[in-house]
Amino acid sequence: MPEPAQLSIDAVGNALTALLDRHVTDVKPLGAGAWSRAYAFDDPLGTGETGQLVARFGRHLYDFEADRDAMAFASPDLPVPKTILIAPTDPFGIDGYVSVTERASGDFPDQRDGDGWRALVPAWSSMLRTLWRQQPQTWPDHLRQRFGAATSWSDRLLSVADEPADADERNRGWKAALQAAPGGDAAFVEGFAVLREVVDAPAIADLSSTMLHSDLINRNVLVDGDRITAVFDWGCGIVGDPLYDLAWLDFWSPWHPGLKALDVRQAFAPLIDELGRPDEEIDLRWRAGCLHIGLGHLAYNANIGDHDNLAGTTRRLAEYL
Predict the structure, then answer these.
(1) What is the rounded distance in angstroms from the CA atom of residue 179 to the CA atom of residue 317?
(2) Which of 1, 77, 75, 10 is nearest to 32 (CA)?
(3) 172: phi then psi, degrees, rounded to nearest 5
(4) Are the beta carbons of 126 and 163 closer than 8 angstroms?
(5) Spatial separation of the C-alpha atoms in residues 176 and 181, rounded to whole Å
(6) Residues 232 and 200 sit within 8 Å (Cβ to Cβ)
(7) If residue 159 lies in a helix (H) or strand (E), which one and from where to where?
(8) Is 100 helix (H, G, I), strand (E, B) or coil?
(9) Which of 45, 76, 108, 209 is the most buried (most CB within 10 A)?
(10) Domains and CATH numbers, the chain
């Protein structure tokens, strides 16, 4: 999937000036992810605490609405930038939508070395505790629907084999793409068979779920020293096993030398111990999460035609079979 098209500074400024009903200045590109492209701009009326706002342009309204709804979880330990505006951009000749949020300062932790990640462990643990304290059964209906609170963790794990029913779903067609990719389909069949066996365990079937971000790397967190300054891009947010966000870091550690040097499971052992569960259960739940992550990204990488990362994900998945 190619990154969203670069927009001209004039096009961005004109759209934002019209939507915010005031002249915006100093528009600067910040970069792009797989699904949106971001721009910073000055906020002359001081709406944002830093004096600047961020506008993200993309085709997927769901992602922007998820960021807005995740403000319900915000706290000093889990800073979620405030969403100020979400609007369609078709009237300005730009396909899709824009989300305007407050801008946070900081750097992405993705490329930190082991010591850099180690310094973040206390703040990262506090962030996860905030998520673990969420009680989906008490949420209003719109939050429960947004993040799938009615879906059991077992069903969520097994749904990795489903083809999206919505014709507009971004990963629709992954099965055909995976079948055509070298080695991917066989790896998926083998991995899913193992996942089905793991999911039958009572530790999975009877799990009490909480809120997950489900993508706490990939430039979705900002940090400053040993502090977390922003957590955004909640489009993958779901309700599930609290260990999943840690398993996520572990699964992707070969792509991030700092995480690999950290040894995620060991570094976060005191936090994991707070769950009060036996090691055998933790091992099983960790493995289930990593299997799900690997299978989901076989599908994703095949569908966007990224065969290099498909091969790497296949190798990583094999370590959990």
Answers:
(1) 17
(2) 1
(3) -65, 135
(4) no
(5) 9
(6) no
(7) none
(8) strand
(9) 209
(10) 9-102 (3.30.200.20), 114-318 (3.90.1200.10)
What digits encode the pLDDT tens for the residues 145-182? 999 999 999 999 999 999 887 655 778 899 999 999 98
Contacts of 141 (CB under 8 A, 6+ apart): none
Q: How far apart are CA 239 and CA 216, in angstroms?
A: 15
- Looking at the chain, how many residues does it have? 321
What confidence category does residue 44 fall into, taking pLDDT thresholds of 50, 70 and 90?
A: low
Other Cβ atoms within 10 Å of 58 Cβ, number: 22
Give the Cα-Cα-Cα angle 309, 66, 301 (nearest 5 degrees): 10
Whole-prediction pTM: 0.94
User: What token pair was written down for 232?
Assistant: 């955004």
Q: Got the DSSP string for 122-148?
A: HHHHHHHHHHHT--GGGS-HHHHHHTT
User: What mean pLDDT do residues 219-237 have?
Assistant: 96
Residue 15 φ/ψ, nearest 5 degrees: -65, -45
**Mean pLDDT throughout 214-242?**
95
Distance (Å, whole) CA 81 – CA 103: 7
Q: Which of 318, 319, 306 is nearest to 187 (CA)?
A: 318
